[in-house]
Amino acid sequence: MELRDHNGLTEREFLEQYRAGDYERPSVAADMVIFTVTDAKADEGSGAGAKELRLLLIRRGGHPCLGKWALPGGFVQPDETTDQAAARELQEETGVAGVHLEQLRTFSDPGRDPRTWVISSSYMALADSRRIQLQAGDDAAAAAWFTVSYKLQREQKKRLEQGCIRTRTYELRLEAAGQVLTAVIEQTVKVTPAARSVQYAVLSNDGLAFDHAKIIAYAMERLRQETETTGSALHLMPERFTLAELQQVYEVILGQELLKAVFLDKVSALVTATNLYTEPTEHTPSRRLYERSWEEV
User: Fold this and answer.
1) Listed residues 214, 232, 250: the one ending a domain
2) For residue 1, what pLDDT is reported?
3) Cβ neighbours, 10 Å, residue 176
4) Structure confidence at residue 163 (pLDDT)
5) What is the C-alpha to C-alpha distance for residues 157 and 134, in angstroms, rounded to an integer?
6) Last residue of a domain, one of 183, 201, 232
7) Residues 192 and 56 occupy one common structural domain
8) Fewer CB near the last or first residue (10 Å), C or N of the chain?
9) In the predicted model, is pLDDT for residue 85 greater than 50?
10) Cis peptide leading into 64, omega within 30 of 0?
11) Higher per-residue confidence, 200 vs 44
């Protein structure tokens, strides 16, 4: 016996008369925050072996936000998932393929895109830059790696009758080939006995399209959190690396120097020593090479 709803309809009868056009529906986009770590340029005055955290952006070749820099991404097609759309758009716009994409969150603020109602399913990827060859796609004027700086400017705390509110203001600064993009992001965390909520607001923005400054800020927080608690940073490393190289990657992501003992405690279960060593140079001795311990996956 088929079940009938309060109108006396079976599921087949209900679907036959259902009209999706009776309800306004959003477009869905997939946007990617792609991070890598590279050696700092010697002409920028960085120390020997210094590392830089970089973020992949594309310059928009059409309206809206013509000429501004944006995260790689595009609209999800009816025959694909958001995961598939993210991988497809990434390949089409930048030439990047074969990297792990991790879903961040859904961004759905009204008015976030001037064209129409657009919801973004955002992703974060960590990639070894030596595997990547950039190429701007049909709807991108250029693709480039930007160095990333995400620094805390100020912090305020307010006690509630039950709970508290913490507000932090960050400066996001992105640089590539003389191009500087900046934004000021406010993060508000409210904690009560019943719930914890985190909200982001863009206080100022110079050069980034849409609400992508907010998405980048959220990705930076996720990247730092996962670097502290998991082996995610190993996605940025080549197959084999020294512990000193890995420590530099941790430090550039976290934005602080780590005591060697603290760093080793974080990664001891995540890496395995090999029988291979680096070639000694005039300034550095030979060092043992390590690789990821896949037993910890």
Assistant:
1) 232
2) 79
3) 16
4) 96
5) 43
6) 232
7) yes
8) N
9) yes
10) yes
11) 200
Task: Give the pLDDT of residue 202.
Answer: 97
Higher-confidence residue of 155 and 2: namely: 155
Q: 243-254 and 212-229 are packed helices; what angle lies between their axes, rounded to 10 degrees?
A: 140
Tell me if 181 is assigned to some domain: yes
Q: Is residue 92 a contact partner of residue 74, using CB atoms and an 8 Å limit? A: yes
Q: How many domains does the chain have?
A: 2
Q: Give the domain range for residue 130.
A: 27-232
CATH code at position 255: 1.10.10.10
Radius of gyration over every alpha carbon of the chain, rounded to an integer in angstroms: 23
Q: What is the pTM of this model?
A: 0.91
How far is the C-alpha of 21 from the C-alpha of 214, rounded, in Å?
32
Cα separation of 36 and 52, whole Å?
Answer: 8
Mean pLDDT of 154-174: 97
E strand intervals along 161-195: 163-176, 179-191
Averaged pLDDT of the chain: 90
Assess whether 109 and 252 both reside in one domain.
no
Distances (CA, A) of 180 to 47, 65, 167, 174, 243: 22, 17, 26, 6, 32
- Mean pLDDT score, 230-253: 93
